[in-house]
Design goal:
Keywords: Isomerase, Magnesium, Metal-binding, Phosphoprotein. By secondary structure, the protein is of the alpha/beta class. The chain contains 20 helices and 19 strands. The protein folds into 4 domains: 153 residues, Alpha-D-Glucose-1,6-Bisphosphate, Chain A, domain 3, CATH 3.40.120.10; 111 residues, Alpha-D-Glucose-1,6-Bisphosphate, Chain A, domain 3 (3-Layer(aba) Sandwich); 122 residues, Alpha-D-Glucose-1,6-Bisphosphate, Chain A, domain 3 (3-Layer(aba) Sandwich), CATH 3.40.120; 79 residues, TATA-Binding Protein, CATH 3.30.310. Strands 1-3-2-4-5 form a 5-stranded mixed sheet, sandwiched between helices. A 5-stranded mixed sheet has the order 7-6-8-9-10. The protein has a 4-stranded mixed sheet with strand order 12-11-13-14, sandwiched between helices. It is globular and about 65 Å long. About 2% of the residues have low confidence. The structure holds 2-acetamido-2-deoxy-1-O-phosphono-alpha-D-galactopyranose (NG1) and zinc ion.
């Protein structure tokens, strides 16, 4: 085996890649050795944890020519930081040093090589689109012994996270199959919507932009489980358009306009997934043709309001919090803190940071503004809910709230943000509350904002602090931003190096769109 490994899938000499916030992501042509080596690393991680590890082949919202790979830890969470470091080391080791690098990891982590390994592998639709002669998962298979792995084939990123968690909790979280996933989520959806009265066909109808990716295929697979309680029109299903091109959650959020390829009438409730279906944003156009976006912040607000009301009705004293990043719209933070009076935390960009912060509460709702997020319930919160749902000596209102909360727990994919699960939860909440998308939108008004990308020679020169809201280097940059921000009303701006693209991201918000645009532009000039 050692000799085989040495010569398989050689690394282009000198190529350096980093395991970033979302694993490895770059042009698909540069990933041959990465796929192979991540197969090897996944097998080692599995031996170390004595559990099943996930490997997902995806580049999410990146353009079609990119691909990527990330590892999923035993409870369905992102790979732990030390192993992200091993992944980067292994990726950048020159070919002749590969065996030594692997042995180093085995030694450092005291891995018992006789321990069996188990790896679940999934992929989105990219490799099909690129028509690779040899699928990227083929390279992974070279790294993992075939008997040790289960190949799920085409799945969304959150479906793979879910399967890994189900496997390692021995079915307690659900069955580690797609059928198990659909039936758990859809049964919970049907339970929840039983509490909604007289829904019209319009209320049951939703337009979904699948970003020409995996999400569209999976929504189609799920549809029959919904028993017509949700009627979905799918657009951008991959049959014509290019993956993520002029469509999908990232396009809609950043461009603040509808995707191409969608046929929407004024007032229609619409949502967009990203390329691997772990993000979702909602939107509609009003009677004047004006576009309204309901992003991750609006989603977090809707969900946390719903949960807080139910907790009160159930008489459960559980600590609920919302976790956001610096990209959260200032209005959302203000509304959550001052009107809803929930705890709000701000973390660095990247779901693993939000996930960890959310774990500190009984109920932790976390969303990035781009629509990536979910809700976490602590073990003790789930136990209290269970007891209440089974109690016989409580009034009907408390009982009803407890049952609704239980179904809410079941509809949510707690392992990671999940467009399909979030969509079902949002649809159920709107149905139960009898709320239109316009009423949801009116909960608070977003401050106009603008996001820009700036290409620089070395983005790592920008270092930040305070959950990325302030730049500490290069010297003078933060002072320049502060001076620019002072020129505008209700303004805020920050810069940070992207973890997934070779760019610096600039964010600005202010009381008018013109001011937000101007501020973002001025700050980008200060970054050069
Ligand atoms: P970077 O490229 O580090 O900004 C982007 C998103 C993150 C996260 C990751 C992973 C923004 C501004 N950034 O990260 O929130 O979702 O991709 O996909 O949306
Ligand atoms: Zn994604």
């Amino acid at each position: 085996m050692a000799e085989e490994i040495k010569n398989l899938h050689p690394k282009p000499a000198g190529l350096v890649l980093q395991y970033g916030t979302a694993g490895f992501r770059t042009n698909a042509n540069q990933l041959d050795h990465i796929m192979f080596r991540m197969g090897l690393l996944a097998a080692l991680r599995s031996k170390k944890t004595k559990a099943t590890i996930g490997v997902m082949v995806t580049a999410s919202h990146n353009p079609e020519e990119d691909n990527g790979v990330k590892l999923v830890d035993p409870m369905g969470e992102m790979l732990t930081a030390t192993w992200e470091g091993f992944a980067t080391q292994l990726a950048n080791t020159e070919q002749e040093e590969l065996l030594t690098a692997l042995k180093d990891i085995v030694k450092k982590e005291e891995i018992n090589m006789n321990q069996e390994a188990s790896v679940f592998v999934g992929k989105d639709t990219r490799y099909i689109i690129l028509a690779h002669k040899q699928a990227n998962t083929g390279k992974l298979k070279d790294g993992i012994h075939p008997l040790l792995s289960v190949y799920y084939g085409l799945v969304t990123t959150p479906q793979l996270h879910y399967m890994v968690c189900c496997k390692n909790t021995h079915g307690k979280y659900g069955d580690a199959t797609l059928e198990g996933y659909y039936s758990k989520l859809c049964q919970a959806f049907l339970q929840l919507t039983k509490n909604a009265s007289n829904r019209t066909d319009d209320q049951k109808h939703l337009c979904v932009d699948g970003a020409n990716g995996i999400g569209a295929l999976k929504v189609r697979e799920m549809e029959s489980h919904l028993k017509k309680e949700l009627q979905i029109s799918i657009f951008n299903d991959g049959s014509e358009g290019k993956l993520n091109h002029q469509c999908g959650a990232d396009f809609v959020k950043v461009q603040q306009k509808p995707p191409t390829g969608i046929d929407m009438n004024s007032g229609d409730r619409c949502c967009s997934f990203d390329g691997d279906a772990d993000r979702i944003v909602y939107y509609y156009t009003d009677s004047q043709g004006l576009f309204h976006l309901l992003d991750g912040d609006k989603i977090a607000t809707l969900i946390s309001t719903f949960l807080k009301e139910l907790l009160v009705q159930a008489g459960l004293d559980l600590k609920i919090a919302v976790v956001q990043t610096a990209y959260a719209n200032g209005s959302s933070t203000h509304y959550l803190e001052n009107t809803m009076k929930v705890i709000v935390r701000c973390t660095k960009t990247g779901v693993k940071h939000l996930h960890h912060a959310a774990q500190e509460f009984d109920v932790g709702v976390y969303f990035e503004a781009n629509g990536h997020g979910t809700v976490l319930f602590s073990k003790s919160a789930e136990e209290k809910l269970q007891q209440l749902a089974e109690a016989t000596n409580i009034n009907d209102e408390r009982k009803k709230a407890a049952l609704l909360l239980q179904s809410t727990v079941n509809i949510i994919n707690q392992t990671v943000g999940d467009a399909i699960s979030d969509m079902l939860l949002i649809e159920a909440i709107l149905a139960i509350k009898g709320m239109t998308v316009q009423q949801w939108d009116a909960i608070y008004s977003d401050l106009p904002n603008r996001q820009l990308k700036v290409k620089v020679s070395d983005r790592r020169l920008i270092e930040t602090t305070d959950a990325e809201r302030r730049a500490v280097s290069p010297a003078g940059l933060q002072e320049a931003i502060d001076t620019l921000v002072k020129k505008y009303s209700q303004a805020r701006s920050f810069v940070r190096p992207s973890g997934t693209e070779d760019v610096v991201r600039v964010y600005a918000e202010a009381n008018t769109q013109e001011s937000a645009n101007a501020l973002a532009h001025e700050v980008s000039l200060a970054v050069y």
